[in-house]
């Protein structure tokens, strides 16, 4: 019955939401294929882990573009910026198709990060603009579930597609063109099938005004400063480990692309179930116990990854770490946003993008340098140390600003388990 009710809820969504989610599946499929193959391709053409880290690091810096996009939404409209972002991503992916020079691959990565940034700052608000009857949480969960599944399928396809004789013969780098074509198709669908944007003339010096308000809020609001610092610590740790997992599995444990794709698929699906169950667990355990438990699991699993050599044990702890880190990111994101005044949430979202841009760039570079010079065990040891720092900072500095929690049950649909609101 639950599944039938869920299908009934999905059927009630407006046509525009179904177009958004269907095209989201195409986009996630393409990016799932590309991101799975990307680092393996870099390794295939002989780039060192340090060079790979440099490419990712410089690309991450350009996610700062999102900090300046807000005022231009009024001029161009969200849909147009979203479609432009998809096309920029497609061009960036296309640069990986026929080139091996590091400088060109770096430029491609920069384009991918800029495009992804434009997508992230417009896609969700555009989806919300199509919802009716205050069903934002349902629409978000619908989109997010499809995104996770399609991304996992993309990785699965990428890992096994070389088993097809034609693709095995031409080399998997040529598969990047398939991802680029899918992104172009996604952009075309959204451009022509979604409603026309409502645009306005932006106020004079709105970019400067936005930056000035952000800086003033950062100076005056200690809570936002602490939240931003916690995000910085966590992101600098996660980004020094996660991008290199597939490379480690291939080079240090001798696994093939197909096996790695099965691991990626399993991790994604299990993470999705973890996110679905998380609100109910928080309701029973409370925020403090839940976050402490998840942090401890992530810390222990990261330490074990630095110690174990057995393939099966390594994969087990890798999956456990991936799920726990995903829960940390989602839980803290919901927790922080719910504890910030409504009028400051847009500012915090901008600061979060700014913080992530710098921290991910630093983490990517450190992770590549560590892997290249010290070996993979030190990557996970690095992640272990940063996780401990993040846990200590959370419980000594941030926790006192958090409210106790209840789960918001105001929405009666089956997706409500994803919508968390923290109250006194």
What does this structure look like?
This protein has helices spanning 2-12, 15-44, 49-61, 70-76, 78-94, 102-129, 136-160, 165-170, 176-193, 206-220, 222-238, 245-251, 257-285, 287-305, 311-338, 345-373, 376-398. It has 17 helices and no strands. Mean pLDDT is 81; it is low at 405-409 and 414-424. With 424 residues, it is mainly α. The radius of gyration is 21 Å and the shape is globular. 76% of the residues lie in helices and 0% in strands. Helix 7 (136-160) runs antiparallel to helix 13 (257-285) and helix 13 packs antiparallel against helix 14 (287-305). It has two domains: 1-202, Up-down Bundle (Growth Hormone, Chain: A); 220-424, MFS general substrate transporter like domains (Growth Hormone, Chain: A), CATH 1.20.1250.20.
Task: Provide a compact summary of the structure.
This protein has 424 residues and is mainly α. It is 76% helix and 0% strand.
The rounded Rg comes to: 21 Å
Molecular shape: globular
Q: Uncertain runs with pLDDT below 50, 5 residues or more?
A: 405-409, 414-424
CATH topology of the largest domain: Growth Hormone, Chain: A
Task: Indicate the proportion of strand residues.
Answer: under 5%
Oligomer: single chain
What is the makeup of the main sheet?
none
Number of strands: 0
Distance between the termini: 34 Å
Going by CATH, the architecture of the largest domain would be Up-down Bundle
Tell me the helix content.
Answer: over 70%
The first-level CATH class name of the largest domain: Mainly Alpha
H/E series, N to C?
HHHHHHHHHHHHHHHHH
Structural class: mainly alpha
CATH superfamily grouping of the largest domain: MFS general substrate transporter like domains
Please, what is the average pLDDT?
81
State the helix count. Answer: 17
What is the count of distinct domains? 2
